[in-house]
Amino acid sequence: MLKMKYRDVVSIGDFTVEEIEGIMDHAKKMVPIAKGEKKSKALDGKILSTLFFEPSTRTRLSFESAMLRLGGEFIGFAEPSVTSAKKGETLADTIRMAEAYSDVIVLRHPREGAARLAAKFSSKPVINAGDGAGQHPTQTLLDLFTIKSEKGKIGGMNINLVGDLKYGRTVHSLAHALAMFGAELTFTAPKDLQMPEHVIKRVKELGIKPRMEESLETSIEDADVVYVTRIQKERFADLAEFEKVSGAYRIDMDMLEKARKDMIIMHPLPRVNEIAPEVDNTPHAKYFVQAFNGVPVRMALLSLVLGVKG
Q1: Is 310 domain-assigned?
Q2: Residue 79: domain span
Q3: What's the pLDDT tens digit per position in 119-138?
Q4: Which among 7, 26, 46, 59 is annotated as catalytic?
Q5: Which of 40, 244, 292, 299 could form a disulfide linkage to 66, CB 3.0–4.6 angstroms apart?
Q6: Options 7, 69, 108, 109, the catalytic residue
């Protein structure tokens, strides 16, 4: 039985495969409510605090939408400069205040480990919405949900993570989770932006030996899922070097000719130029479906940690 009541959601590594499967099953039931086809008052009278110390569009809005779809309400901020943190208030004290005003807290913070710290100071559930270059567990859950919904399974799938794998917290959590499910992994990135060694080590400990590639053109051919991330221009001292790798990691119609007919493309968004706009109209494009899936997955998490059946 899935036991989630009052549980913090800090790292994907805190959950078993069976627990993740349970969350995804619950999220599937939430889809009609997330689409507005059904109504729910499951979280009527409950309040969510959204504490976003870093910019966010999809994560914050999907959490707020999830709460509203379940009949709850939310308070919070999306700009830390308007809070008492500007006056020097500690994160611990901010969390204590949010705990007093709400039933569950969602936190995004630039400092790695902030969510784990926040959970120590709150008796209410804390959900990590991204902490620096650390973890982004709810993004990982919606990514897993998308893969399973579109492909029917996760284990055995050949999943190619592409782009800035060094600094992207999204792919760090996702690689860990995919290895837990037994997916085949390919890491496609420039040498300087390849997956961190500690993530590779963890993946290997879980029984998966990832394939390391630099060329998307060759690694796309046998992929079931291509998960694209933005290569961050600001990481390059030499603009010419950036332009060289940036163009090599762009998916366009020509690139798709090398791909399997049923391959799907995912992206945590926002995108810049990694995926050509004309790709949006192909059956491969699943990144906007992926973004929507954040709502039912976060609805499932909110109802589970509050101990309420959706």
Answers
A1: no
A2: 12-135+294-305
A3: 999 999 999 998 876 678 99
A4: 59
A5: 299
A6: 108
